[in-house]
């Protein structure tokens, strides 16, 4: 029994007459009667007896009716789900991001997305870039946001912005009186910055050579957010990305690094996996959120 035949059978069972059933389905009586007769021919047994203008269900019809109703409810649910997926009203969106964009960009993107698509489940993963790549490949994340565009060939990287560096100073530090710092200002200071062989460390080393200075961090970190406690404890000046909302942390002063390098903010997807409609709409919100975050803070522009 096909979907249309199922629909006609249930309508006749509920309405009791061809006229009422045709009205329910908004089709003509001859069309409904033809579908019903064709269904009975295919099944090989009668579904209704014609008694005084009404259709009386046969024992066979009564036997299959509960199953038909369950199937119909399942089809209706499937139709609603596919419509919701097409319109981005249901489903799951999984985003993996390194900590700076996870803290600075995703809250804004998720807020805008949630206001328009409240039924979509959102899942956020904070991870280093190598783990983000693995998650995209495995399908554990549909979208990634990272501060690098040097990715393997199976990962597409769309650069959606760029960000420079800032210096995090312990409260009361002598350099706090300056509105911005240069690489030369940091020579001889106790530095907290990224470990070697990472994108930001490479960019800083290249810039230092170009300015004729040498920077030697005395404390290396993997992720910029971990610098906060060290700076608050007075262990040195942190040279980190300017994307994180550093001003929200007490006990440190934030100064932009003048004429310093920048590195990209990239939106990552797997070339081997397509995006759902909800994924595509989240991608648009991440782009817009990145633009807004960079535009509203002069230090990040």
Automatic annotation (TrEMBL):
Key word DNA-binding present: yes
Species of origin: Mesorhizobium waimense
Keywords (A to Z) from UniProt: DNA-binding, Transcription, Transcription regulation
A Pfam entry, by short name: HTH_1
Family: Belongs to the LysR transcriptional regulatory family.
Record keyword DNA-binding present: yes
PANTHER family the record matches: TRANSCRIPTIONAL ACTIVATOR PROTEIN LYSR
Protein name as catalogued: LysR family transcriptional regulator
GO molecular function, one term: DNA-binding transcription factor activity
Domain HTH lysR-type: 1-58
A Gene Ontology biological process term: positive regulation of gene expression
